Design the sequence.
């Protein structure tokens, strides 16, 4: 079963519905005991870094996440805020420590670009540019377009871009659209809201997870 | 670069979808779920479900419709109408909405916009503005389903809403609603040009070229329409085809055939 982490942020229902639509067994992961039932964990979320991280801590999810995902290698997919929380430090709502699975800061889209002119939040459908070795998430897809809605992004620097970033979207700068490290997958866009292309990506994630 | 969006707006009243002309409701056009299939809604870039019930009743029933709709809606789904409290925002999001539209309550207490933005992020709150022409080069904001004049200029309120934390502006021309004469450029252009946040426009689409015309107004990010999609089968696909054929940078769904 796919466990959707319920840590008190918006948008859980859409993610749940998408897996149901794909006829994949799915449940809300509510407490530490539930981790044992999950073949894969999805960290969804729309919202605020500091509040989101606060909720993870308050629900006691940080330790089991590190144990099951990092130590035991359970496949994990972070979506939007879920991706951001995997960063080292978040700057939304004051400097906050994240899960630290990716060596990146979660910065405002216009960070360090005083002449940045585009509107923030980045809302809407954007094509992604697949980089490096092709991620299994985008297999069989030519020029996928996904739905984004966010003001902050996972900002890798230097070599880490090449190492972890598997796709970016062009929005006045290269916005990390997806990142990957072993069993950890993370996307800034919302596959559950990206119609055909989103469903194709979720199906690919389920292939990584395997049957069950 | 981010695509321009085509938004299908569904007006819901007492359990049915309806059409609207100058904010006066006309035909009931059926159930939400049937409509989604009729439209081939996956080709829309966003669905907006608006509760335009005249009195504040049926909110629970609206939530049920929203929940049902969200099971089939794998594009962004926005809900609004009678959103008067943070509790209602919570309920809409719990029942499948990705974003909420606020209007009258936001106008009366602009702190409400900030409260929603603080809880869910500003991308979650769309401020809807209904305006009508009340003088030369003057477009006035009307609240409470277009019934109550405010004396405030549309552009001024849009800027103030942005300041309060709105993530997008949904701008409706009451004069053009249901008129089939195209978007109200005179209302839209000055507002769209002034905003830093995305602007969605609504009211007046009578043919697919009107959608393209709307997208050409500087500062407009998304065009929304309602009534027109009820007249043809596969209407969203037809609209998309037109927009692509005239060179608009809209999303082309996978396996899309011209």
Sequence:
């Amino acid at each position: 079963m796919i466990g959707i982490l319920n840590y008190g942020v918006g948008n859980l229902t859409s993610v749940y519905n998408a897996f149901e639509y794909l006829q994949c067994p799915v449940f809300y992961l509510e407490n530490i005991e539930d981790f044992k039932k999950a073949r894969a964990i999805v960290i969804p979320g729309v919202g605020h870094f500091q509040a989101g991280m606060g909720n993870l801590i308050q629900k006691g999810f940080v330790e089991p996440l590190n144990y099951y995902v990092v130590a035991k290698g359970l496949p994990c997919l972070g979506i939007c805020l879920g991706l951001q929380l995997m960063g080292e430090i978040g700057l939304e709502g004051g400097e906050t420590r994240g899960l630290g699975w990716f060596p990146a800061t979660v910065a405002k889209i216009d960070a360090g670009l005083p002449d940045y002119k585009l509107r923030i939040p980045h809302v809407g459908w954007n094509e992604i540019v697949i980089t490096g070795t092709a991620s299994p998430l985008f297999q069989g897809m030519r020029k996928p377009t996904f739905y984004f809605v966010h003001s902050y992004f996972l900002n890798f620097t230097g070599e880490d871009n090449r190492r972890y970033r598997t796709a970016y979207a062009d929005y006045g700068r290269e916005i990390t659209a997806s990142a990957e490290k072993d069993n950890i997958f993370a996307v800034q866009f919302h596959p559950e809201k990206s119609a055909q292309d989103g469903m194709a990506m979720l199906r690919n994630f389920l292939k990584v997870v395997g049957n069950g | 670069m981010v695509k321009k969006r085509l938004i299908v707006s569904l007006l819901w009243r007492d359990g049915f979808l309806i059409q609207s002309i100058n904010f006066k409701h006309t035909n009931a056009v059926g159930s939400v779920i049937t409509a989604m299939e009729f439209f081939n809604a996956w080709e829309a870039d966003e669905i907006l479900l608006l509760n335009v019930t005249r009195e504040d009743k049926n909110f629970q029933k609206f939530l049920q419709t929203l929940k049902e709709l969200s099971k089939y809606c794998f594009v962004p789904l926005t809900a609004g109408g009678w959103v008067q409290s943070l509790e209602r925002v919570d309920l809409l999001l719990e029942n499948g909405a990705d974003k909420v539209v606020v209007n009258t309550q936001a106008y009366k207490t602009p702190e409400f916009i900030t409260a929603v933005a603080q809880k869910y992020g500003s991308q979650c709150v769309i401020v809807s503005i209904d305006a009508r022409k009340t003088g030369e080069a003057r477009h006035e904001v009307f609240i409470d389903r277009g019934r109550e004049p405010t004396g405030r200029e549309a552009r001024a309120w849009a800027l103030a809403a942005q300041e309060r934390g709105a993530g997008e502006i949904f701008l409706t021309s009451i004069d053009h609603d249901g008129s089939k004469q195209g978007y109200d450029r005179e209302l839209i252009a000055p507002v769209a040009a002034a905003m830093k946040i995305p602007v969605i426009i609504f009211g007046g689409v009578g043919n697919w070229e009107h959608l393209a015309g709307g997208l050409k107004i500087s500062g407009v990010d998304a065009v929304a329409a309602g009534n027109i999609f009820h007249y043809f089968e596969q209407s969203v696909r037809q609209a998309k085809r037109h927009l692509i054929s005239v060179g608009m940078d809209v999303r082309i769904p996978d396996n899309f055939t011209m």
Notes: DSSP finds nine helices and twelve strands in chain B.
